[in-house]
# Entry
Amino acid sequence: MVELTSRGLLPGESSWPTGVKHLPLVIGPAQSLSAESMTSLLRDQRAWVLGQLTTHGAILLRGTPYREAAHFVDVMNALGLDYRAYPHLTDNYRRPVVEGVVNASSTEAPLPVPPHTEQAFSSVRPGVLGFMCLQRAPQGGQTPLHDCVNAYRELTPATKEMLQGAFFCKVTDQMSEEAVRSNFNTLDRAEIDQICKKFDLEWSWNGGKLSFVTKGPCVVTHPMTGETAFSCFWTVPSIHYFFRNYHGVPGADRKMAMLCRVVPLSAFDFILRNCVPFFRRNYRYFLFKDGKRLDVSLEMHTELNAVIWKNTTVFEWQPGDILMIDNIKVGHSRMPFVPPRHVVASVCNYYDARERRVEAPASRSSPDTEKHSPDRSAYTA
Ligand SMILES: [Fe+2]
# Structure
């Protein structure tokens, strides 16, 4: 009988080893298999695979026979993941590849997607993420992974205190019709209102345009392991930190790299948030705690970014790789790249981070889990 084997990254597979050696756990078949047989094996070993995901925070299915997005869907079905198309709650349009699977970030190739836990700006967020590499970039384009539990542990007491009980909030303003349809799969206002309510958004309509504010806790407790993790999302300082420290990586925007090296963070933050349309639109965020906005010092931003990158590892994609991430324990980013690159993504198993519960994929049908499950109808877009 063919079995699944597991190991850490081999030296040649890790392009950027840092302090984190345990991400991701690499899982593959002991011998080559057809796509059908591999999926069947994953279905049979589902409890073990999901257990590894919870323990390690990220698993990389490598050496697979998979080459199409449809195979990715088969794997998610085999693992019992709920990958229905949920609203991503931003005004970026994401083109669906197949139902429930979209192209990964549309952020331009020369820019990084800074470290984040998916939809950390929303309390209702994915518990699990999936990525599949259909075409690796000639250079760059890796998906770095960072350990959110270690990162939280290594923050200074003052930063921990600031983050405890704080929410990361994001303003999405005057959405385009295309973005509304991409998020909600409808243009019907009553339906959209219902979804906004279920996602606990503050939303408004102005001249037929939808705007909303989302908020998600910065510090969460993992409902299955009890670990405390730091959830983060993109900030302008995270762009500045990236280009200051990693300006030489393949495909990186040379002008931005130069700007970040000569302009101090305070000026860079002001310029991007006020004068550059892309950042003005996409980087409208603030921290909220005890009924008021928090001013986060730039030094604290630098500390957060330093701790995250210290706890990051970067592996090289191979075509057919499928990466599953526990979106509570592990955050991710995307390196700049030289096109083309084709990585698809899916967000699964939404849960409410405020209530510190998640629907465990391995025991979704157990009576105890059902009793504490969120209203599944809340998360249907
Ligand atoms: Fe992401």
